[in-house]
Amino acid sequence: MEKRVHAAAIWLLMLLHGAAFAQGERTRDKMYQPIVGAGCFRRLNGTHQTGCSSTHAGSVGVLHLINVEADLEFLLASPPSPPYAPMIPPHLFTRRNLLRLIEAGPSNISVVLLINKPEKMKQFSHELNCPNQYSSLNNSETCDASNPATSWNPWGTGLLHEDFPFPIYYIADTEEISKLEKCFLKFNNFNYETHALRSLCAIEVKSFMSAAVSSEVCIRRTRFINNLSGSKYCDPLEGRNVYATVYPRNVSSVEAEETELAITSEKFILVTCRLDTASMFDGVGLGAMDSLVGLSILTQVAHLLRELLPPQSSLPDNRRNVLFVTFNGESYDYIGSQRFVYDVERFAFPKSSARRNLITFDNIEFMLDIGTLDDIANIKLHALSGTPLAQKLLQQLNNYAQSPRYGFNLNIQSEMSYHIPPTSAQSFLRRDPKFPALILNAKPANKYYHSIYDDADNVVFNYGNTSQDFTLLPDVGDTKNFKADSLQMKVRNVSSIVAMALYETLTGKEYTGSKVANPVLADEFFYCFLLSADCPLFKAASYPGSPKGLPMPPMRYVSVLGGPQESSGWTYRVLGYLLSQKQPKIPKDNCTILPLHYFAGFNGVGECRLTTQNYSSALSPAFLIDDYDWRSGNYSTWTESTWSLFSARIFLRPSNVHQVTTLSVGIVVLIVSFCVVYIISSRSEVLFEDLPASNAALFG
Amino acid sequence: MTLPEFFGCTFIAFGPPFALFVFTIANDPLRIIILIAAAFFWLLSLLLSSLLWFAMIPLRDVLAFGVFFSVVFQECFRYIIYRILRSTEQGLQAVAEDTRVTDNKHILSYVSGLGFGIISGMFALVNVLADMSGPGTMGLQSGTELFFVTSAAQALSIILLHTFWSVIFFNACDTNNYLHIAYVVGSHLFVSLLTLLNASELYTATLLTNYIITILTGLLAFRVAGGTSRSFKKFVTCQ
Amino acid sequence: MDFSKAPNPRKLQLCRTYFYAGFALLPFVWAINVCWCFEEAFRKPPFPEQSQIKRFVIYSAVGTLLWIVALIAWIIIFQTNRTAWGATADYMSFMIPLGSA
């Protein structure tokens, strides 16, 4: 009876307790904690695979924080409980260290985590010393990887082009990093000798890549008719070039398009730049200095020319026009410009659906390519040879750059040699070294070229948020409160110089006005592309009342077909808006068919404008040509492997001792129970003797 | 849970029931059928309790409530099996190849109890096992590494308890021994509510109490089935 | 059907049919024939059709063996050389592994 009272007491207690505490909780949530980050993925070219992949089930490694280089030695010498997952801060994420980790093999190092602790970082660029080396001019003078003085990315480690046997996961968020560190400190960071005997905090990274070997192999397998499962192995890198002209072109008649190639005597000055950037990790990397500065200058030049130039009919040569092209996929062996050259060569630009006359190489007067402008005090005009054209443009540029009237105080040098920067012009020069290509490029100074750290901080961008109309041109003295050394003013100065020089080329007259490019436009442009796509410039360039952009910068990686293509989409709208002519007389309802386009405009009320912008495909010709020789190196062959998911989670990895103990206890229980049950069942009549003989067979 | 851990836990929880099955059930088709039928009835009780849980929206988070009614339903279904088995005894006698099943009524209660136990142990553990897939073990945020082993041991005790309870319960129904019936329902409730303490990681306390009750219940079932201390002595001394 | 209860001529007929069917590149039919008729051919007390059944069983067994040897050899050759053969091997495959050569 006493037991019963006792039980009742506990019973009551437990009912209370149960009501208070016992909540349904999934055991999985107690074991695993997801870690948010960005994965490194696999890209392939005609001959190699680069990047990373996890194992099919996910790679698991024991967390180990690397603070100093010596910490790595512990993992590389003879780690007690491999495989490990080193957490490496960016300043130790060097080529030497990574190669050592590769050498240690996947049985020792199964995952590498890059944690966002940039305090000690001095440089971080994993592009080659000579970006796009194998699709550039084949000349030793163009770029020498072994000589930092003449290479175009002296800080590059080339890790972007390595194939890693482990996944690399980038963790940007400080909260996620502290989760990892806490787990490491609590379970791993003591008594290293007994690692093998304890349960350790480990991470599992899933980033399995379907493609392997090379683009040739994976494209063949994807296209393969026997591919019953329909699985895709890889997709070619593919995007859209955006182009626009300063003067609208005539709509070609339908008949001409069908019967013959409509070649005209139009003359184009080609002004180009790069649209995309690259980084090792999926969805991270803004390319602020390596390509966004060039893009901002191109849009500013376009806008300024649109505002300054007289009507086309009043030009000395009224067949002249300016064609602005932003090439996509240039980071991966000039995909956009190679395709552009390929199309123009084959009389396929613009595509027939654009209903404009063809542009051939004969129509191109010269090309001004805006490369990377890391340091505007050191801009050079590059050309293969010192033609009169180059000399003239240089002289015009310097005329405005040094003119006391504008006070830009810049000096543009020139270099007429094969030492040509890795920009889009290379594709044109590869086709024809005599092509009149001029390149504006600064001495490389970007220590974060093609990396996740090439962001707003790298270009020292501070958003002015002036809320002023960025479409109006200010006088040269009106700096809109931007400091002389601010990014906005630098962009204003360079784009004004370029636009004025082009103005002089087109009109034959010196520019004498006082209007210059608007630093507010540069301010808004960088805000949109570096901080948030929900911004005044993008809003103005969209249809009124269209959904807002996401509060994050648009992705600028070229990506694949069906990828987000945010960057080209926004560039299309911005170029369309800035390079168009207002048509106040046309009502909204009639403003629906291109080239007429209805924009929200700066104040959001909506305005009809006559636009000139369009897309062209940026898919490498290698994927169009039947039986293309993938090893020839003629065209870009980059593809991106498909994958199903990126995920990472931390948990406690049971020690071998624990596992073996559990298993042996289980086996012992199994064996013992078999013996006991056998003995009982074979002698049950003895055990249950009180029953009648016929009944004494409970365990019969 | 890793593969060795998985097999270890499975062996701990299901090793003894498997041995019982192999030596006492597997060679008689009738027993297998009764075992499966009992398991089916347990599933029905689970269905009813889950329906009740689903319907009582405000009480969903109060686990004690669900546990209480689940136990009540299980005991109801134990009684239903008892009624069914007793009413079909004659039919069984006609089809049974091995007459012992019908001659010794404890065999029927043992078999149906084991069926009850195995299915309830499976549900107790399989839910855990399914959630455990992956390379990790318990203990990152809370809980200890012994969680799996504890779960397995708990499942084993539930399986054994169900077997004992059925033997006691059926006999008590036959002899109108209400004290025994009360003991079965009471200890079932007690053990089930005891598991709620696992939320606060009092594994040693719950597991120890659990096994003490299992042994006590086992002894009672032994007595009920006709065992005595004298027979046990004879058994141990191999006479 | 219960083979052992069939009349002897029927057994012989079945055994012969299976043996000939195996020539349609169906080694499994031969293998089944061997298993099915082995009892009749070697274990049962002699009956008139037994010698013929025995012959068919032996031939089927030899055929199965040849197939096994050939298949194993081909599988070994193919799997060890698959990556080296490149495109040719891909065209021979229905399932191509993900993420590796």
UniProtKB/TrEMBL annotation, chain A:
Q: SUPFAM superfamilies attached here? A: Zn-dependent exopeptidases
Instruction: Tell me the leader sequence span.
Output: 1-24
What subcellular compartments does it reside in? Membrane
What's one GO-annotated cellular component?
plasma membrane
> Nicastrin small lobe domain: which residues?
40-211
- Which residues span the membrane? 660-680
Q: Which domain of life is it from?
A: Eukaryota
> Could you tell me which Gene3D superfamilies the record lists for this protein?
Zn peptidases
Q: Which CDD domains does the UniProt record give?
A: M28_Nicastrin (cd03881)
Pfam families on file? Ncstrn_small, Nicastrin
What does the UniProt keyword field contain? Glycoprotein, Membrane, Notch signaling pathway, Signal, Transmembrane, Transmembrane helix
Q: Which InterPro entries match?
A: Ncstrn_small (IPR041084), Nicastrin (IPR008710)
Topology with respect to the bilayer: Single-pass type I membrane protein
Any GO BP: Notch receptor processing
Tell me its family: Belongs to the nicastrin family.
Q: What is this protein called?
A: Nicastrin
Biological source species = Drosophila persimilis (Fruit fly)
Q: What is the lineage of its organism?
A: Eukaryota, Metazoa, Ecdysozoa, Arthropoda, Hexapoda
TrEMBL record, chain B:
The membrane topology noted for this protein in its Swiss-Prot or TrEMBL record is: Multi-pass membrane protein
Pfam families registered for this protein in UniProt: Aph-1 (PF06105)
Any idea where this protein resides?
Membrane
Superkingdom is Eukaryota
Q: State the signal peptide span.
A: none
Q: Which positions, given as ranges, span the membrane?
A: 6-25, 32-56, 62-81, 107-126, 146-170, 177-197, 203-225
Q: Does the keyword Transit peptide apply?
A: no
Q: Name one GO cellular component term.
A: late endosome
What is one process in the GO biological process aspect for this record?
Notch receptor processing, ligand-dependent
The main location is: membrane
Q: Which residues form a coiled coil?
A: none
> What keywords does the record list, in alphabetical order?
Membrane, Notch signaling pathway, Transmembrane, Transmembrane helix
Family the UniProt entry places it in: Belongs to the APH-1 family.
Q: What is this protein called?
A: GL26582
Q: Which gene encodes it?
A: Dper\GL26582
From TrEMBL, chain C:
User: What family is it from?
Assistant: Belongs to the PEN-2 family.
What is its membrane topology? Multi-pass membrane protein
GO cellular-component terms in the record?
Answer: gamma-secretase complex; late endosome; recycling endosome
Annotated TM spans? 17-36, 56-77
Can you say what this protein is called?
Answer: Gamma-secretase subunit PEN-2
Q: So which domain of life are we looking at?
A: Eukaryota
Recorded name of the encoding gene: Dper\GL17758
- InterPro entries, per database record: Gamma_Secretase_Asp_P_PEN2 (IPR019379)
Query: Localized where?
Result: Membrane
GO BP, sorted A to Z: amyloid-beta formation; membrane protein ectodomain proteolysis; Notch receptor processing, ligand-dependent; protein processing
Q: Which UniProt keywords apply?
A: Membrane, Notch signaling pathway, Transmembrane, Transmembrane helix
